[in-house]
Every structure is written in structure tokens, then in C-alpha cells.
């Protein structure tokens, strides 16, 4: 059984301007101990999916259908009280801009102790010892526990937030752009730390990022999102060597790299659509070089085109069709 | 050909506010410290480094948003640090323009596209409305906002991020400057529109013959955009040279660490760990030795006993500020 199985998850946001079609029939699964990456541009629904899994969506979000099975239990149907037990122990999250997710008036260590004691029946001494261990795990000096957030650098805060996410040894951690605000050298260290800890404790990870290079380095499997839809999902090597969706291909050739020959970038025409009025049929069709009448009219099915390789496209690339 | 822009030993210090009851003397942030480089006509010069390294301050010194504490900056042989006001300043502003990082903040929300792009023309003496209209339409077409008439009377909130940045680029380019300081012009944009804006800037260099100082934290972007590249660390240029040479054969330990830390979009490539210790420290009253000393994995006796190393030419214009380079 998969650790997490998401089936046709659909949700909208109600705004003054109308309904934002944020997530549309997204399905994927995560196995125990696996690292999966969700990649896509801002506003494509990556963070909404993460928040929906944890049921932390804002009040104007409307859940319209689908299942989120965590260890076989549908999280969309259980009472809030049970959901609270899952957060932290079952699934925890490292938020984007972690620097702002610490409370400035409490010592950092105490905030992590609070998180531990909320979920586990252990005393303060034991919890403190545990935080010290976690600090070593993420590469922070345990003495820093008694300092306040403003005494930490950006990279240190990020590590503290990771320690907090690890505190109750969850089975799945969702990391939403965990290093986006950091410089590359700090980013490198944090990603190596997270990956080391994940391997050691055999936790599953879901990374969310707009940076396909970061996702490539830390994920075993990659899901590509566009305008609220998951358009392609396969193991990392397949996504890079044999991408089938035109958007995946476009995303790869839109990034410069410091390795290999310097090559011309292929700019995608147009801009990501406004999800108040998503395009008909395949949401990528207005920017797709291969779009036909079918793409304009019909939503492509999300199906398995080869073992472990899922795709939603009428005209898969690199397959002679 | 003489250089278009020449920076000679440019330094910018910021005085820190004295803390109450502090017994310490004045404390200065050495944001830019003895920086020298030149920009050739039609050249793209990349300036890279981590946040706080002084790259944006350098850009703001060049456009005279800051005045240097010491050092000189020459544009076409004229010392611009001596320019104060009047026609000379106006002439200078006509030659040097800036593109900012965030097109959500750099455009006035109450200005239409036409107002925003025509404003520099009005300031620089294009009085006839018909001429302003013609030149705005021309530059909008050049930055890819076509057909121009559909954009002229729109407000920033009616445009996407990529379109806004194109308006900001048009505004900088409409008076045909010789030099443009572009400070992270694509980092706020959606990834699928970044490549288009980068290619637009490369195309405008060909069409208008403009030079860029291209400031970015992203080495891959710097490689794509620039002819020459300088790496800054705590206010100092530590390495400077032809872009491909710096990327392929970095000589300064900091450049090597920075390049090793860049994620590579190739799952078959095993990236080595960057060799660097500790975290960035703030350049407040920094020690006299090499700025990189405390983090350098290779530091030796000579590094501890000597002042910050000068930029030395290793040949073919590849300059490195390190006592241990090529040894």
C-alpha cells in the first residue's frame, strides 16, 4: 500500500473576482521512504496541494472532490481532532519562507519542545534532550536552543524549522520551497542535510519547487504541474531523458545551466493562464506548439503511458505519435 | 577602443548607527571596497555573488543613486563622481539607465504604459507629442509588446509580470542609453517567461548597441548573459575574466565553492560538495587580511600574514585575488 495516495483532488478558491480553479483532478502516490518532487511555476497549484493534504487551506478554499488516502485513511473525511494528530506525527511541513514561521518572542528551542509535547507524552527534560539531538542532526550547535530567532541567520532558521518538522519523526515531510530564499552555498548544505536525514530515518519527502535543477538533485520521482493540473509524472531519469509532455520539455530548455555546452534557451510563448478563466480542454494548449482542435476541446486523460510514467497529453512527444 | 565605463578603486562605506551605551567607535559596513573594472561598448559584464556581497551597491554607484566614499567612476572619460546637477547630470542620466528587479514596484501604478515609457522622453526634451508617441510605439514593438496600441493605455495591474518587466525595459531603453545597469531583471518572473526576457535583453544589445552591467546571484543566468564575469565576496571582486573561462576553470576558492553549489539539472551528474567553511559574515570593520580567510579551505601562512590580495592577471584578462591561485 502506498503511504499516501491522492486521487482526483480538486479544489477552488472563491474570490471577489470569481472562482479560481487552483487544483484540478490531481492524482499521485508516494511510497514509504520515497522522495518525490513537484515542480511548476508560481500559481500552478503546488502549494495548494500541500495545504490540502494537511487540511490547512484558507477559509475561501472549496474542496470539490477527490480522496487523500494516508495509510489507507481518507484525510478529507476524518474529524478535525483526528487530523490534528496526523499533522506533525504523520505528515509535517517545512513552509516556504521558514524565517517567518518562527515566533520572534520565544526561544527557538522552546518552540520545538512545544511541538514535541503537543504530540508525544514526554516530559520537558526528555523533550529538551530530543531537541538537542535534532539540532545535531540538522547541523546546528545545541547551545543555540536557548537563543531567539533574531539571533539566527537565515540558514540557521531554516535548519531550526527543519528540526521542528522532524521532531515527531513523521512518515512524510512536505518541503515547500525549503531553500528558495537562501544563497546557493547554504541551499546546498540544507538540501544535503535533509536528504541525509531522510535516508537515515527512512521518511518520505515531497519537495515543492519552481527550480527543476533543485528537484532533479533531491527527488527520485518528479511530478510536473501546469495551471492546476499534474501534466506528467515519472521517475527523475525518465523525466529528464524522455519527457513526453511539451510543457516538461519546454521547462527543461528554458533554464540555463553551468554544465555542458552553452546552448540557446527556448522561450515559451505567452504567459501562464489566469485560473479564474482557465483555458478549455488542455490548459496548456494556448502555449503549446503541437496543439490541435482536440486539445482545445477535450481535457486529456491522465494515464499511464508506460510503467510508472503518467501523462496528460493528446500529443506525447518523442514517441513517434 | 576606450572603455565606456571605468571604475577605479571605488569604495562605498555605510556608517552603522551607534548602539545606545556602546563603547565601540564608529562602525562601517564595507559594502563596496576598492572595486575596479571596466565595461566596453556593447559588452555585457556580469556581476555575481551572494546576497550582501555589494553587487547591487556597485550598480547603484554607477547610476549615481549612491555617491562613492572614495574612488572614481569614468563614463566616456568623464569623471561622473564630480557631476552634481544641471545639464551635465541630465546628460549623464541620458547615457546610463537602470532596470530593477521587481516590476511590481518599479512602475508607478497610476501611470499608463504610455505615461511610464514617455516620461523619460519628456524629461530629456522631446516636446512634440507626436514624436513621443512614435518613439514609444517603436520601443514597445522592440521589447515585444505587440501590437503597441493595445498596450499604450493599460495600467500595470492589467499586465502580467513578464509584460511589466518589458515595460520597465522599454522605459530604460527609450532614450537610447549607452549603458544599462540590470539588477536581477528576471528573478521575480515566472520561470517560463524568464528565457524570453533574457533573450530580449540580448537582442536589444544587438539592435541598440547598448552595454549592460548584469547583476545576478544566479551563475547559470550570468553564464548565459555575459561576455565577462566578476565574482564579488564581501565588497571585493575576487575573480574576474571571460565568462566561459571563469565558469570552466575557476581559480579563486570562493568561485570554486560557489560553482560547486549550483544545482545541475541532470540526474546522472553527481555534484561534489563545495569546499567552504562557516557562514557569510557581515563586512563590518572587516580585518585587513583576505576577506575569504575565515571560510577558505586552503588558507596558508601567507594568507594570514598578508593584507587582502590584489587582483592579479593570470593571463588573457583572467584576474584573481588569491595568493594561492595557480600555484
Q: What fold name goes in the CATH topology slot of chain A?
A: Rossmann fold
Order of helices and strands of chain A: EEEHEEHEHHHEHEHEEHHHEE
Number of domains of chain A: 1
Would you state the CATH class of chain A?
Answer: Alpha Beta
H and E order of chain B: EEEHEEHEHHHHEHEHEEHHHEE
What is the architecture of the largest domain in chain B at the second tier of CATH? Answer: 3-Layer(aba) Sandwich
Number of DSSP helices of chain A?
A: 10
Biggest β-sheet: strands ordered side by side in the sheet of chain B:
6-7-8-3-9-10-12-11
Number of strands of chain A: 12
- Write down the overall mean pLDDT of chain A: 91
Give me the CATH superfamily of the largest domain in chain B.
P-loop containing nucleotide triphosphate hydrolases
Structural class computed from helices and strand pairing of chain B? alpha/beta
Quickly describe the structure:
The complex is a heterodimer of chains A (321) and B (327). Chain A has 321 residues and is α/β, with parallel strands linked by helices. Chain A has ten helices and twelve strands.
Please, could you describe this protein's structure?
The complex is a heterodimer of chains A (321) and B (327). The model of chain A has no long low-confidence stretch (mean pLDDT 91). Chain A has an eight-stranded mixed beta sheet, with helices on both faces. A four-stranded antiparallel beta sheet of chain A has the order 2-1-4-5, with helices on one face. Chain A is α/β, with parallel strands linked by helices and 321 residues long. In chain A, 32% of the residues lie in helices and 24% in strands. Chain A is globular. By secondary structure, chain B is α/β, with parallel strands linked by helices. Chain B has two domains: 5-226, 3-Layer(aba) Sandwich (Rossmann fold); 247-327, no CATH class. Chain B contains eleven helices and twelve strands. Chain B has an eight-stranded mixed beta sheet, with helices on both faces. The mean pLDDT of chain B is 92.
Amino acid at each position: 500500500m502506498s503511504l499516501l495516495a491522492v486521487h482526483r483532488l480538486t479544489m477552488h478558491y472563491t474570490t471577489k473576482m470569481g472562482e479560481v480553479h487552483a487544483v484540478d483532478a490531481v492524482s499521485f502516490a508516494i511510497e514509504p521512504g520515497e522522495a518525490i518532487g513537484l515542480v511548476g511555476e508560481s500559481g500552478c497549484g503546488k502549494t495548494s496541494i500541500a495545504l490540502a493534504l494537511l487540511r490547512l487551506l484558507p477559509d475561501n478554499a472549496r474542496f470539490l472532490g477527490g480522496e487523500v488516502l494516508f495509510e489507507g485513511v481518507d484525510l478529507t473525511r476524518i474529524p478535525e481532532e483526528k487530523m490534528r494528530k496526523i499533522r506533525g506525527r504523520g505528515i509535517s511541513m517545512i513552509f516556504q519562507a521558514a524565517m517567518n514561521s518562527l515566533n520572534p518572542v520565544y526561544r527557538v528551542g522552546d518552540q520545538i519542545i512545544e511541538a514535541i509535547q503537543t504530540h508525544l507524552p514526554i516530559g520537558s527534560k526528555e523533550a529538551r534532550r530530543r531537541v538537542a539531538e535534532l539540532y545535531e542532526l540538522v547541523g546546528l550547535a545545541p547551545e543555540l536552543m536557548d537563543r531567539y530567532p533574531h539571533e539566527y541567520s537565515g540558514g540557521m532558521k531554516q535548519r531550526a524549522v527543519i528540526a521542528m518538522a522532524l521532531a515527531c519523526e513523521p512518515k512524510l515531510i512536505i518541503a515547500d520551497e525549503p531553500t528558495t530564499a537562501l544563497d546557493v552555498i547554504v541551499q546546498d548544505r540544507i538540501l544535503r542535510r535533509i536528504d541525509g536525514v531522510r535516508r537515515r530515518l527512512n521518511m518520505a519527502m515531497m519537495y515543492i519547487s519552481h527550480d527543476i535543477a533543485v528537484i532533479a538533485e533531491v527527488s527520485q520521482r518528479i511530478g510536473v504541474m501546469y495551471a492546476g493540473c499534474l501534466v506528467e509524472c515519472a521517475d527523475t531519469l525518465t523525466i529528464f531523458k524522455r519527457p513526453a509532455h511539451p510543457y516538461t520539455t519546454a521547462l527543461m530548455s528554458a533554464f540555463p545551466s553551468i554544465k555542458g555546452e552553452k546552448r540557446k534557451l527556448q522561450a515559451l510563448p505567452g504567459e501562464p493562464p489566469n485560473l479564474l478563466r482557465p483555458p478549455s480542454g488542455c490548459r496548456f494548449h494556448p502555449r503549446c506548439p503541437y496543439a490541435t482542435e482536440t486539445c482545445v476541446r477535450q481535457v486529456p486523460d491522465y494515464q499511464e503511458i508506460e510503467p510508472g510514467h503518467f501523462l496528460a497529453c493528446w500529443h506525447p512527444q518523442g514517441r513517434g505519435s | 577602443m576606450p572603455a565606456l565605463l571605468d571604475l577605479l578603486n571605488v569604495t562605498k562605506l555605510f556608517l552603522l548607527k551607534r548602539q545606545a551605551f556602546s563603547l565601540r567607535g564608529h562602525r562601517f559596513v564595507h559594502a563596496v571596497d576598492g572595486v575596479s573594472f571596466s565595461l566596453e561598448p556593447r559588452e555585457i559584464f556580469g556581476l555575481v555573488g551572494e546576497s550582501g556581497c555589494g553587487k547591487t551597491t556597485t550598480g547603484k554607484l554607477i547610476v549615481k543613486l549612491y555617491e562613492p566614499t572614495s574612488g572614481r567612476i569614468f563614463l566616456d572619460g568623464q569623471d561622473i563622481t564630480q557631476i552634481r546637477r544641471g545639464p551635465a547630470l541630465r546628460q549623464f542620466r541620458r547615457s546610463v539607465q537602470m532596470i530593477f528587479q521587481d516590476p511590481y514596484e518599479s512602475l508607478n501604478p497610476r501611470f499608463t504604459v504610455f505615461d511610464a515609457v514617455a516620461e523619460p522622453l519628456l524629461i530629456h526634451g522631446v516636446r512634440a507629442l507626436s514624436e513621443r508617441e512614435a518613439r514609444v510605439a517603436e520601443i514597445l514593438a522592440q521589447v515585444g509588446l505587440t501590437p503597441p496600441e493595445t498596450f499604450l493605455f493599460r495600467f500595470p495591474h492589467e499586465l502580467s509580470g513578464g509584460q511589466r518587466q518589458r515595460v520597465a525595459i522599454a522605459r530604460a531603453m527609450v532614450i537610447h542609453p549607452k549603458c544599462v545597469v540590470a539588477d536581477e531583471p528576471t528573478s521575480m518572473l515566472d520561470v517560463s517567461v524568464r528565457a524570453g526576457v533574457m533573450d530580449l535583453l540580448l537582442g536589444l544589445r544587438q539592435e541598440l548597441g547598448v552595454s549592460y552591467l548584469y547583476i545576478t546571484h544566479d551563475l547559470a543566468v550570468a553564464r548565459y548573459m555575459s561576455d565577462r564575469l566578476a565574482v564579488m565576496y564581501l565588497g571585493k571582486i575576487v575573480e574576474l575574466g571571460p565568462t566561459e573561462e571563469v565558469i570552466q576553470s575557476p581559480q579563486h576558492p570562493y568561485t570554486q565553492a560557489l560553482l560547486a553549489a549550483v544545482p545541475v539539472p541532470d540526474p546522472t551528474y553527481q555534484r561534489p560538495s563545495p569546499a567552504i567553511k562557516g557562514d557569510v559574515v557581515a563586512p563590518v570593520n572587516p580585518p585587513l587580511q583576505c576577506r575569504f580567510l575565515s571560510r577558505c579551505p586552503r588558507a596558508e601562512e601567507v594568507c594570514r600574514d598578508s593584507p587582502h590580495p590584489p587582483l592579479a592577471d593570470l593571463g588573457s584578462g583572467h584576474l584573481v585575488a588569491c595568493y594561492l591561485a595557480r600555484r
